[in-house]
User: Fold these one by one.
Assistant:
Number 1:
Amino acid sequence: MKGLILAAGRGTRLRPLTHTRPKPVIRVAGRPILHYAVENLLQAGIREVGVVVSPETHKDIAESLRHFPKPFRPTYILQEEPQGLAHAVQVAQGWLGETPFVLYLGDNLFQRGIQDFLAPFQKGVSAVIALAEVEDPRQFGVAVVEDGRVRRLLEKPQNPPSRLAVAGVYVFTPEVHEVIATLKPSARGEYEITDAIQALVDQGKTVLGVQVQGWWKDTGRPEDLLDANRLLLEALEPRLEGEVTGSRLVGRVVVEKGASVRNSTLIGPVHVAEGARVEEAYLGPFTSVGPYAVVRKAEVEYAILEDEAQVEEVHVRLQESILGVKAEVRGKNGLPRTHRLILGDLSRAELA
Ligand code: G1P
């Protein structure tokens, strides 16, 4: 079994964050999204991993994976033109050969890994696809399933026939290459993996739909990133390896090696990455401070600060915010306008 991660996309819905860097390298809860995909493949015992990149994403993806914390050597496969997911598989066909494989969309996150989708991939099964029930399936592939078998698949339909969205993990036998070779571009001009799977179904092959247990996130929009960050931080194991002085830490907080937290209040879950500096600051729940970022005389909560981002002397609390690499927010003199009040019965405070 091989693993094929797709990381060639331009991430247009995440602009401006993705103007400069591809989506899978954005950090959630301190780690690039892509690292969770690799971790899940390795945990499922898949050691041979190919990563499909585009000329635009190649450098950043390779740089991010160079920092993967375990021994891991991916094979990079170049998709020159963005012609769809099935096209990406076709480009990788030479590397995949006659081996069954897991196709993993590099911007998708699964709380419980991918084991649940591999287990039903037995003899006689041509494909297994991960499915998740969602409120509005119109922005996804949508499946109609009977007795666990996929009967119909539609890509981003206006009138979805079910609420089962195609989540970003698929397991295939090499049979899929034959159907991909026969595909025509869809209305949006792409070779769709959903069309390839529909072709397998039409040929009478067994395609199983397995519902995702735990949460699943397609990190298409900024609010998805913040939510993914929240979900991952929910499971944070507290750990203090950096320097913490004169500060109050409440709940689950991680301060990585080389980070410093001084005269600050951190209400967890909060992750402070290596080399980050937090001074005279407040970090509220669901905040990730990236490597070498600085938060000084400022208040931040429900936020992602990427590597080397800086928030200094800002007078309002930053909330539901994402700051890209080296982004800066600055105010002038003075502390943020947030107050901690303990008011007894019948007291009255007027805050200007
Ligand atoms: C792709 C697939 C879609 C799937 C989705 C999951 O869409 O085409 O079928 O539901 O990933 O993330 P994209 O997000 O690339 O538009």
Number 2:
Amino acid sequence: MAGKVAKNKGTGKGKPKADKLWQGRFEGGMASSMERLSISLAFDRKLFREDIEGSMAHAHGLKAAGVLTAPELKKMLAGLEKVKADLEAGKDLFLPSDEDIHMAVERILTERIGALGKKLHTGRSRNDQVATDLKLYVRRRAADLETAITGLQQAIYRKALAYRNELMPGYTHVQQAQPIYIAHYLLSFFWALERDKTRMRNAAASAGQMPLGSGALAGSAFPYQRELVAARLGFPELSPNSIDATAHRDFALEFLGACAVLGALLSGYAEDFVLWSTQEFMYIELGEAYTSGSSMMPQKKNPDSMELIRGKSGRLLGNFTRLFTVMKGLPHAYDRDLQEDKEPVFDSVETLDLCLTVMSEAMDSLRFRMDSISKKMHPGMLATDLADYLVEKGIAFRDAHHIVGRMVGQAEAAGVSFLELPESAWATIPDGKAFRKRLTFAYSAERRNIAGGTGSKSVTSQLAQAKRLLKI
Ligand code: ARG
């Protein structure tokens, strides 16, 4: 209940009570309501690896600074290693009174190796510790996401290769615009993902300055070699300023921004696939395992995988917005508000990891229904090619556009396509009879072999470039 004082007993049933590690100057305990607000272990336990590896590197730093002897370092490292192994094995070592993962690890260590455990926090504050943990986490997960993005690119590449000779309508404004190769459409996804990988790498690089040695905000008073600690943790740089290191979370924002941008990309392709699996389009069929039925309507096979991926984009943008709002106007240096930095990061990582897996698998399962695609391709998509042809015959593009526009209008009124208009309507077109025969969807696509265009030569070279990037 609000206002009730917990007297440090925690809320655990049957678990031993433990004093808080910062208890020194306090006489009473925290109100139980305040404990509920304060305790972050429920979520920051996800950082246990980063926290323990950070502590091990810090211990090396303390040895180099003369704070720990060689035997003490050895004992401390063995203790930390054991705590990590136990947590990895899923052992529940935590107490309800543990405030956060940093306190929990230190308490467990001290209980196991005795007084020596109390030396670990020398020259360190949870402020530089938590910033280090989160940077390590972001660097690792950004690399994992990059791998997952590559997995999706591989699935896209396979599908593009399979459909490299097949045409479909290309759309603008969801209106049939110009014919394109299916591979060209699919590769648009591939190339965008390549930039998402760059954004992941950039976010990891922004998290590349190691905070340890910054202490609470002013820098550690113990001259341990930060370079040595950073090298052990794989940080390429040291933070150049202890306030910057402990107060700022721009690296996390950048990472969440990259996640939100990727989420928006996935949602756009998911939307295409939802639309294209409708009875109205019938362009694609998703593997059954990535759809679901309706509890009421037996005929339904809903593209839920794509709808869920589309929906998750809201959550990914929300995570970015959530941390941005926390950061805005925060006084320097550390404030407890910063504890709010972790959950959005964890959530974006887990959400994207799952979305990328499902998108890759669904991509592999997807089949283009060439029969209905070719039936739905409208000859109107060739109007631009007729105008281009007139330009080649010496007519200014604006005039050509007008001539073709009139033919299209005439055709619409007659309920046919402009290719089906009577000979008389084609009379103004030089060599109109012969050209009408040449004017096919493949002709249109093949005229676009400019680098980046949909022509088959361009698509083949895109596929070759994609293959080189994937190293397959
Ligand atoms: N749990 C805290 C966080 O996530 C750790 C740092 C606490 N520091 C402090 N000065 N109270 O930010």
